[in-house]
Amino acid sequence: MEQNTxxxxxxxxxxxxxxxxxxxxxxxxxxxxxxxxxxxxxKLNYAVKALSNIxxxxxxxxxxxxxxxxxxxxxxxxxxxxxxxxxxxxxxxxVSLEEIENAAELGVQINIDNLSILxxxxxxxxxxxxxxxxxxxVMAGGNTNISVGHIDSKFGISIHQIPHLLxxxxxxxxxxxxxxxxxGSDILDIDVFLYASEILFDTAKNFKNLEFIDFGSGFxxxxxxxxxxxxxxxxxxxxxxxxxxxxxxxxxxxxxxFEPGKFLVSEAGYxxxxxxxxxxxxxxxxxxxxxxxNHLIRPxxxxxxxxxxxxxxxxxxxRFYSVVGYICETDTFANNRRINEISEDDILAFKxxxxxxxxxxxxxxxxxxxxxxxWHNNSAYLIRKRETFDDILNNQIEIxx
Length: 401
Ligand SMILES: Cc1ncc(COP(=O)(O)O)c(C=O)c1O
Description:
It contains 12 helices and 18 strands. The protein is an alpha/beta fold. It has 2 domains: 209 residues, TIM Barrel (Alpha-Beta Barrel); 122 residues, CATH 2.40.37.10. The longest helix has 19 residues. The model has no long low-confidence stretch (mean pLDDT 95). The structure holds pyridoxal-5'-phosphate. GO terms for molecular function: diaminopimelate decarboxylase activity.
């Protein structure tokens, strides 16, 4: 988005504020569908957890996307946004049987990732087709928090438990209509995808009633200058060929599914913050902004590097800054970062603020969560109001002591 537009949005809606560029979301969606154009039946299920604002979900609905959900509340949001139940897959981890039954009652595709619930669900609801999430025992992903397909991970049913799984399916007479994996996020090397896919194909042969194979997600997007991204075009070419060959041998054209979050929304997002204080110390110059890890936790949680630019002074000379938040703990967004000269009241734009940013925000330090704005067809739409003091008090009960 143009810097002047972002500055205007900060003026009109205040700071801090999240801004999402609808055109970029549409571009990424089309890029991924084009990469897999050789596959007859392709389904992209946007991972709601990345950015769950209902207006963003509506945008995905208009593109023909499905949804990947991990909680009953995400399912409800998807339905409220207008998605048909069969366009939603429910892939929770470690939730109660009751929550899975509630989702099944709403008509969404159930995806089960452990044998205990599979047996209980299959016994009670043998007529509801179920997808199974397997754990292919592959180490993939940008860091340990987001590597979820390895042998020590809590996710999925181990490929070594397939004989037990098959026994449950036979004993309960249930139908397995899909098979799924998600090995991690920020996977750079397409060979890792292709390797894990072979394990999924091998497992799929055990099930005769499949309608789809879901390869999860994990596409890496660039975060900083010089960063490399997953080559989705090359992956699309190679995996599509292999998928078509598998379907031929399987005897039926299946649907190839993915459930990307970051790839679709990360780069569409900007987080605009105002500089409250420029503080010189003996070791650095701090730019202290009107936000903190309560609004954007990824740098502190994952060490992720969001590019930061001073959109109030884009041509100023570059200097080195530590950009920090106002939370009363170490709250660092960037260390020793080269940024155009910063003055108090300048607006800094954090890039890649679409995925796992607002959706991980909290009220820590009793701060309001920021507003969200969607930039669509050259207009800025407020899609979430900034919170107020009433929101902080909402649900709190004052007792007389
Ligand atoms: C099951 C599942 N699917 C999809 C995703 C989306 O991954 P990404 O944002 O890397 O595309 C996640 C992310 O945690 C996930 O857990």
